[in-house]
Amino acid sequence: MICQFGFKNFRSYKNETVFDFQAAALSEFKKSLIENESASSLLPVSVIYGPNGGGKSNIIYALSCLISTVVKPIYDLKKNRIQYISQTEVPVESFLFDDCSSGEPTEFNLYFRKNAYEYRYYLALSNSGIESESLFRKKLGGKRTATIFIREKNNIELGASIDKASINKDVNPKMPYLSFLSINYNISVITEVQEWFESCIISDYSNPNYETLIPLIDDKSFNSLLFHMLNDMDIEVTGFHYDKENKELFLTRKINESIYSLPFSNESAGTKKAFVVLPSIIIALKEGRLLIVDELDAKLHPKLLRYIIKLFTNPRINKNHAQLLFTSHDLSTMKNDVFRRDEIWFAALGKDLSSEIYSLYDIRKEDGNRVNNSAAYDKQYLEGRYGADPYLKSMLDWEDQI
């Protein structure tokens, strides 16, 4: 489970930026939280809103960049421990709108939990390779932090848990030491961290070719659940078959005891999107994974988007503590009956063209108090009270010009 993600000098983000999955002390939706007796409660879902070009997707890309940097070498050498994966490879890119940042490394700082431990992984990347890297852990509820390894360029220092003469410290300057250890050794603490990174599912549905990325899984119970969920969404599909000769997928429906097939290419955009995204959701919920999605709402009816959100916030369904992070333009779900205030985030550009993020919980009204959990979040957002959407003001300016 992800606890907190921080980064600096990545794409539109110049300054240190922190995205927090730790739950604030709020009264709403307490039962939806991922609780632990020894540690802080975590959020099952977080959404990022904001105007086009404000930096929403770059938060997703920053986390994707870190994950893919660690995982890609492992998968390239077929040393992975988790079979199913959907991850978007994102290259590191510095903030370019000043004279200093482009020459500085991009920094990532990630806190996550796996089994009985909370880990902190830090990585600083530049065009020349790994500038700095470190991995620490502590027992949930414990106070002592143990060092796994610390790396400063080519100088690597091992912690007590892995400090053995057989461990090689000579590593390619462009490869994370975490990846190197995962590939070459069977060390329990490294394996635990490796499995967490590999378990992350990253999907980019802003990609116009996403409809070709159809995950066909030959598992009767899995497909039964998939069709059950599609039917819950009022998409009456009973099965599918793949024509290998023509390389065409068909979805089947049963009408008056007769079976009819329709080419997937002829299905509606919403049906295509649901059929592509639901397998990742099922896997995340079954295995307690982190699902990261850019533009989850694209081509989905608002009711379907709400349905997906509720799968993660319902503790009876989300028994294995899966988490969902996504970007959205859909304001019909920016409601106090869908999200907690700390689950709603905004991304916006500052005067220096660098992005910043903040949660609805962080916003203070003129009287100094926080936004009430009874407020009409969508209405206040459109009125410009949350500072992340310039469109309404621009429309009013145009009224004066016409």
How would you characterize the overall build of this protein?
With 402 residues, the protein is an alpha+beta fold. The protein has two domains: 2-206 and 275-398, Rossmann fold (3-Layer(aba) Sandwich), CATH 3.40.50; 213-268, no CATH class. It has eight helices and 18 strands. The chain has helices at 56-76, 177-184, 188-199, 220-232, 269-287, 302-313, 377-382, 391-401; strands at 2-8, 17-20, 34-36, 39-42, 45-49, 106-114, 117-126, 129-139, 146-152, 155-158, 201-204, 239-243, 248-255, 258-263, 290-294, 323-327, 344-349, 355-359. Helix 1 (56-76) runs parallel beside helix 2 (177-184) and helix 4 (220-232) crosses helix 5. It is globular, with a radius of gyration of 23 Å. The protein starts with a strand and ends with a helix. The model has no long low-confidence stretch (mean pLDDT 91).
Low-confidence stretches: none
CATH level-two architecture of the largest domain: 3-Layer(aba) Sandwich
Rg computed from alpha carbons, rounded to a whole number of angstroms: 23 Å
- Counted beta strands: 18
Structural class: alpha+beta
CATH classification class of the largest domain: Alpha Beta
Distance between the termini: 52 Å
Number of helices: 8
Rounded mean pLDDT is 91
Task: Write down the CATH topology of the largest domain.
Answer: Rossmann fold
Give the strand order, joined by hyphens, for the main sheet: 2-1-6-7-8-9-10
Oligomer: single chain
Overall 3D form = globular
Beta-strand content: 25-35%
Fraction of residues in helices?
25-40%
Biggest sheet architecture? 7 strands, antiparallel
Question: N-to-C SSE series?
Answer: EEEEEHEEEEEHHEHEEEHEHEEEHH
Total number of domains:
2
